[in-house]
Amino acid sequence: MVNFGKIKLISRSFTTLSSAPLRICVVGSGPAGFYTAEKILKAHEGVEVDIIDRLPTPFGLVRSGVAPDHPETKIVTNQFSRVAQNDRCSFFGNVYLGSSISLPELREMYNAVVLAYGSESDRSLGIPGEELAGVHAAREFVWWYNGHPDCRNLSPDLKNTDTAVILGQGNVALDIARILLRPTEELAKTDIASHALAALEESSIRKVYLVGRRGPVQAACTAKELREVLGIKNLAVHIQQADLVTKPADEIEMKNNRIRRRVYELLSKAVPPGHTPVLGQRELHFVFFRKPDKFLESDDRSGHLGGVRLEKTVLKGDDELVNQVAVGTGVYEDISCGLALKSIGYKSVAIDDLPFDNYKGIVPNVGGRVVTDSLQDHMQIETGLYVCGWLKRGPTGIIATNLYCAEETLACISDDINKGLLTSNSPKPGREGLLQLLDSRNTKVVSLDAWKKIDTEEIRLGHIKNKPREKLTTWEDLLKVASE
Length: 484
Ligand SMILES: Cc1cc2nc3c(=O)[nH]c(=O)nc-3n(C[C@H](O)[C@H](O)[C@H](O)COP(=O)(O)OP(=O)(O)OC[C@H]3O[C@@H](n4cnc5c(N)ncnc54)[C@H](O)[C@@H]3O)c2cc1C
Ligand SMILES: NC(=O)c1ccc[n+]([C@@H]2O[C@H](COP(=O)([O-])OP(=O)(O)OC[C@H]3O[C@@H](n4cnc5c(N)ncnc54)[C@H](OP(=O)(O)O)[C@@H]3O)[C@@H](O)[C@H]2O)c1
Fold this sequence. Notes:
With 484 residues, this protein is of the alpha/beta class. It has helices at residues 5-11, 31-43, 61-64, 76-85, 103-109, 138-145, 171-181, 184-187, 194-201, 223-230, 248-256, 258-269, 390-393, 401-418, 430-440, 448-464, 475-483; strands at residues 22-27, 47-52, 89-92, 112-115, 121-122, 135-137, 163-167, 207-211, 235-239, 282-287, 290-297, 305-316, 325-336, 339-342, 346-347, 365-366, 369-371, 381-387.
């Protein structure tokens, strides 16, 4: 059922079109969307902001990316909830830009549109065997354990193997390693999806390999996250001592980058000299200077993963510029495993009628203003169309990075308002028009009040199990509770 509760109030102010507010739609309710909305509302008193999201739930990767054992990171959702409760702000979930409504339609409804729909696809390795059962993108695996409804049925097989290989050494790779290796009694107290907890409780995985194509100095993770994975109870860490030997270029790299030095130092001390693993311990192996070459099919189970072939690499690069890249040596080795997780970065998805830079996987923009072509000579600004977050910069940066990103996008919007490029002189239908169109298409819009029903139910269910929340993980359950 479409919830028009809040709309009725607002539609009264539509009677005098001359005093119509400027109407802005933000697409995506992750950090980029919420920070942008918050900043617009603060900076411009006469502006109304509607946030749409394809999910019935808000908060983007704070809900479906941030690891369940990082509850402190999710506190930011309190700030986002306050933004959504602002009288001049509305949240409309279950509204999919590109299928519920097209971009040209949305632009017709609003004076400006800010795209903040993140990165919901994956970089591809482009190597043989990626289609084998047992090979998953990190994004899917993370969505699975975080209860994203699109990955409810992923069912990664954790029972037929004792080894998982994670390709990539960024913070997402570390999150996944931690979830696979952490004692499940500890995970049981988090908001991890119950289907994932059950699978992890039965998991036979004892060894996790974290594979980097470059060395320990170039590992893409940060120190706090590395310390956490190294501190898992009853875990034996393995690193080849030879991989820890640095070259002059590595030393320059560490001199210029404090995070790299901290990460390297932690890795160097992770395995004390003479340390022998205790029998029965779970194992975490850091593998450096190896790039994925192919996924190997199992001999026993047709169509299933049996291992990963890695090519040894050396680093080449200018010692001064310190841009060392991994180059294959033609020497290969295999790791037997039944589960492989590609954690080599996310990628944004193009939608119809939107300029898109396929190479960079972002919407071409100048400081947040969408341009039709990023080449200087042909650049044309799309008036009233802006971008923020991972869709603007690419899939890197922590939650707070999107705050600075939103400030930059807001500066463009404010500038365009001041220049008279965005004006309510030609009033737009805004949320009233949007909801009418969605209603005519039988889209079940999830309002803020409807999301609160989901929230309350999840917290209630969690309380029973001594968890902060028990997420609803199917589209049916989410929409059912929202419409009750
Ligand atoms: C696995 C993982 C763990 C992370 N952990 C941390 C952490 O612990 N701490 C930290 O600081 N940072 C963490 N980050 C980084 C942080 O999550 C990102 O910087 C941030 O979420 C990016 O914000 P965004 O708004 O651009 O995208 P997102 O958070 O992805 O939000 C995009 C939103 O757009 C919606 N959407 C997508 N397509 C459409 C569409 N077509 N129509 C309508 N809506 C759409 C999505 O449903 C989503 O709600 C993590 C990232 C990942 C991947
Ligand atoms: N707790 C937290 O704060 C937290 C948690 C999760 C995520 N995040 C943030 O979210 C962002 C995304 O994280 P991420 O881990 O997805 O990305 P990332 O930090 O960019 O790491 C990607 C990893 O994949 C490797 N890689 C890329 N292409 C490859 C290829 N073709 N073959 C082999 N390896 C390849 C990279 O190696 P190279 O370096 O050699 O390219 C790197 O190790 C990051 O900014 C991260 O800090 C933060």
